[in-house]
Amino acid sequence: MEESQPTQPAEAAVGVPAQGNELLQVRGKGAPGCRHPLEGELVVGRKGHVQVEDKRCSARHLRIFQDEHGFFLEQLGMNVSFVNGLRLQQGDRRALRSGDEISLVNPSNPKSQKEIDQPPAVFIFRAGPSEALERRSLKRPLEETHLGGTLGVLAPDLTEEEIQESWDMRSVVLGKGSFSEVRLGVRVRDGRKHAVKVVSRRVFEKFQSSRKSRLSLVHEAELLKSLDHPHIVKCVEWFQTHSSLYLVMELVDGGDLLHNILSGGAFAEEDAQRLFRPICEAVAYLHEKEVVHRDLKPDNVLLTEKDRAKCLPKIADLGVAWKSAGSEDSRTLCGTPHYFAPEVINAKHGGYGKKVDVWSLGVVLYVLLSGTPPFEDEWLYEQIVQGNTSSTPRSGSKSQPPRRIWCDA
Q1: What pLDDT, on a 0 to 100 scale, did the predictor assign at position 102?
Q2: How far apart are CA 359 and CA 375, in angstroms?
Q3: Residue ranges of the domains in the chain?
Q4: Residues 6 or more apart whose Cβ sits within 8 Å of residue 378
Q5: Which residues pair with 244 in a beta bridge?
Q6: Strand pairing report for 11-15 and 36-37
Q7: FRET partner for 120 with CA separation of 20 to 30 A, picked from 139, 196, 221, 244?
Q8: Domain topology for 11-127
Q9: Which segments carry the region annotation Disordered (predicted)?
Q10: Residue 27 predicted with pLDDT over 60
Q11: CA angle, corner 230, sides to 224 and 233, nearest 5?
Q12: Which residue has the higher pLDDT, 290 or 348?
C-alpha cells in the first residue's frame, strides 16, 4: 500500500461567484487576504465562523476540518445538510474535494423563485485548483443488509450510487496493484476510515484467462473474512457492482515495507528481527489454515507506523493466495518474479506448496537487511534456480551486507 498524500495547508474565505452560490475557498493557514483561518476546524451556521442567517440552519450546523488525508465535513446540527445533493444527518461525515457543493438547505426543494435564482445557504468548496465534479442523482439509501458477503455466497450487486451513499472514496488513492487500486474510504455514517480495495472485474477476468487460474473474483474477500490474525490485514466487509468488487479493510497508516526501505535504507539487525518474527508468525498461521500466500514481498507488508523502533507488520494482498494443496493453481505462475521460489519457476514440471512462501520470506529478509534484492534482473530465473546471489550491495544503495539472523517463529 502507498503512503498517504501530504497534508494540504488549510484556510477558508467567503466570496460570491456566479449563480448566487457562495464560494468557500480553502487555502493556506496564514495566507495573505484570507478572512477565516481554519485553526483546527471551520464551523458554518448561525453562530459559526461562517455565519448563515437562515432559521433552517443550526447554530453550529456543520464543521469542515482537515487531517493527514485531506478535508472532511461533519454534520453537527440536527437540521440536515447536502453535499452534491447527498443528504447528511447529524454525525455523518464526508470527504470534500474542490468543486463540491455544500447546501445547508434542501437544494431540490426551494420555497420561492428567489431561492432558485439565489440560494440562501449554498457554498462551493475550493481546495487548491478547481476540479470538475460530476453531479450524482442518488436513488435510495444503502441498507446494512446489502453489505458483506458470507463465505461461498455472492454479495448482491449494488449500483455505484448506492455505494456512494454509504462510502466516500474520492479523496485519496493509497496504492495500486495489477488489477486493483486501494482507496481511502470514509464511512458516512460514523466517519470511520478504512482502506477500500477496488478490484476491476474486466482486468481480473483478463488475468484469470491468461493464467488459466481458477481463482474467483470474490476469492480474496472470502479468504480474508475467514482469517483472524493480528499480523494479517482484516477485511471488515465486502460488496460488489457490475464492474468492481470492493473489499473494506482496516486502515494501516505506516505505508508499506518497500517504501520504508527505499526511503530509509536497510534495517538494523535488531529492528529487522523484531519486524520479521511476526511476519513469520502470520505466514505460519496461513499455512496452518492450508493457505499459501504466493506473493510475499515488502510491498505486501504494511506497517502500523513509520517509526522502525515501534512499527508492527501486517501481511496484505491475498489476491493470488490459494487454500488447497490439490488446487490446480499450485501449478500457476503467480507472484512477483524477484520473489519466486525455484518450484514456481519450474511449476509446469510439477506443483508447488507452502515451501514457496518460505523461500519468499528468505528474500524479504535479505532485502530487509541489505536494502537490495539478492538477484540481478538479467538472467533472473537462472540465478534463482541455481541459487546464485552476491552479498555485495549494489553501488549507491543505502544498504549493508546481509548477515545471519535467527528468528524462532
Answers
A1: 86
A2: 13
A3: 11-127, 144-249, 257-386
A4: none
A5: 200
A6: antiparallel
A7: 139
A8: Tumour Suppressor Smad4 (2.60.200)
A9: 388-409
A10: no
A11: 40
A12: 290
Superfamily, domain 257-386 = Transferase(Phosphotransferase) domain 1 (1.10.510.10)
Evaluate whether 129 touches 158 at the Cβ level (below 8 Å). no
pLDDT at 18 over 70: no
Is 295 among the residues known to form the active site? yes
Cα distance between residue 288 and residue 265, in whole Å: 33
d(CA 263, CA 118): 52
Residue 4 has a CB neighbour count (10 Å cut-off) of: 20
Q: What is the pLDDT of residues 130-163, one digit of tens each?
A: 232 222 222 223 333 233 333 233 344 678 878 8
Q: Quick: pLDDT tens for 64-88.
A: 888 777 788 999 999 888 888 888 8
Q: Which CATH superfamily is domain 144-249 in?
A: Phosphorylase Kinase; domain 1 (3.30.200.20)
Question: What burial class does residue 40 get, using C-beta atoms within 10 Å of its C-beta: 0-12 exposed, 13-18 middle, 19+ buried?
Answer: exposed
- Radius of gyration of the chain from its Cα atoms, rounded to whole angstroms: 25
Residue 197 annotated in ligand binding: yes
As beta bridge partners, residue 301 has 315
**Rounded CA separation 18/144 (Å):** 40
Query: pLDDT value at position 341?
Result: 64
94/28 Cα distance (integer angstroms):
21
- The rounded distance, in Å, linking the Cα atoms of 307 and 337 is 29
Predicted confidence band of residue 246 (pLDDT cuts 50, 70, 90): very high
Catalytic one among 295, 299, 329, 357? 295
b/e code 78-94 from CB counts within 10 Å (16+ = b): ebbbbbbebbbeeebbb
Residue carrying the nine cell digits 496504492? 175
Grid cell of 383 as nine digits: 540465478
> Helix crossing, 257-264 with 355-370: angle to 10°?
20
Q: What letter represents residue 296's amino acid?
A: L
pLDDT higher than 70, residue 56: yes
Distances (CA, A) of 216 to 148, 199, 209, 343: 17, 12, 11, 24
Report the candidate in 155, 249, 153 with the shortest Cα–Cα distance to residue 198.
Answer: 249
Residue 113 is predicted with a pLDDT of 52
- At CA 173, angle to CA 276 and CA 186, rounded to 5? 95
